[in-house]
Amino acid sequence: MGRILIIDDEDKLRSLLARIISLEGYEVAEAPTAKAGLKKLEQNKFVAVICDVKLPDGNGIDLTQKIKSSHPTTEVIVLTAYGTIADGVQAMKHGAFDYITKGDDNDKIIPLLNRAVEKAQLQQRIQQLEMKVGERFSFSTILGSSKQIQEAISLAKKVAVTDATVLLLGETGTGKEVFAQAIHYGGERRNKNFVAVNCAALGKDILESELFGHKAGAFTGAIKDTQGLFEEANEGTIFLDEISEMNLELQAKLLRVLETNEFIKVGESKSTRVNVRVIAASNRDLQKEIESGNFRSDLFYRLAVFQIQLPPLHERIKDIEPLAKFFIQLFAEKVNKPAPKMSDSFLEKLNSYQWKGNVRELKNIIERAVILSDRDELVVSDLPLELQNTPPSFATSPFDWAFIEKQHIQKVLAHTKGNKTEAARLMNIGLTTLYRKIEEYKL
Prior knowledge:
The protein has 19 helices and 18 strands. By secondary structure, it is of the alpha/beta class.
């Protein structure tokens, strides 16, 4: 049922309470002083503490504050003497669950203790769920060992522990929301709300109302006061995806929030104050959007306190195989079948494809393949036609072409036995260019 700690210097009363509580099925520990009680709390986990206000080495009010500070899910019930009910009230202000006066019928302590234990156990379950959510959205869930993705992860980890505004840039499907969640759960706001909104999915009027809320009667259909997403994210994080789709008027209101932490609801005249971390994302070049008059430069500079560029999948070919294996396992479990392997030709097609939809497209294609396949191995015919028709290639990105160029130079230099002038002539390039390539590829 749980472990209870009794801290009281009156031996007879402490022993009596311990006997009464143990008969209810609780495991009970005792301590005669504040120091001894804190030591027991360090050694074991208790769901509740019953603590006297007057102790030889301190008072229960200060002790309550210490216990709640270091053990927030442990509930404290304070014992007060006659005429010191004010002490119990003061202890509750410092986090105590409740208080009971000494001399009251001892039967009162059990119902009070049961309620305290129920609250403590509920808080512990919530804490466990929060930890699981944090693990689900942690940086460890971002797969990939390529240099490009590891550099992005490293930057995101550094900014996560701060409260800085973050701008995530990258093509559609590169995992901007995954990074935003990891940044949120890697920071001090992890136990507060993470609210995501796609600015491209809502019209101007609807988006303003969604973000900032509205008063009843502000527009047709506004029958009651409505809280916006910024209020919902208060003390937490709001993720504004596709920020480039926000119109200029709304951009100005967002800029005000970033500068003052205040906004005005639709149909209201007074400001609402919030404390929200903003993470924004775009798949467009915002500098070009500024030049074309579609995006405010002052908003860009407020958002771009810390920029992270997420690499497209075709620039991180070595990550395709581990990502595919992860998605295969994920979707095999969903359809309740053993996870199939990938044939060499299947993996070659994945590595040769351009992946304009990036990781999201890979995820969808793997899900389709797992559902369609009735074998223990995924083959090319399990892929969509556009992927089946992709010609085999050693290179579908600048990085792969560089690898081929390096190999070619090595072979020509070997053929000319290191004669760089002859090698340059055979490759029809300048000698200076050859020396630059040799230095670049560390040949």
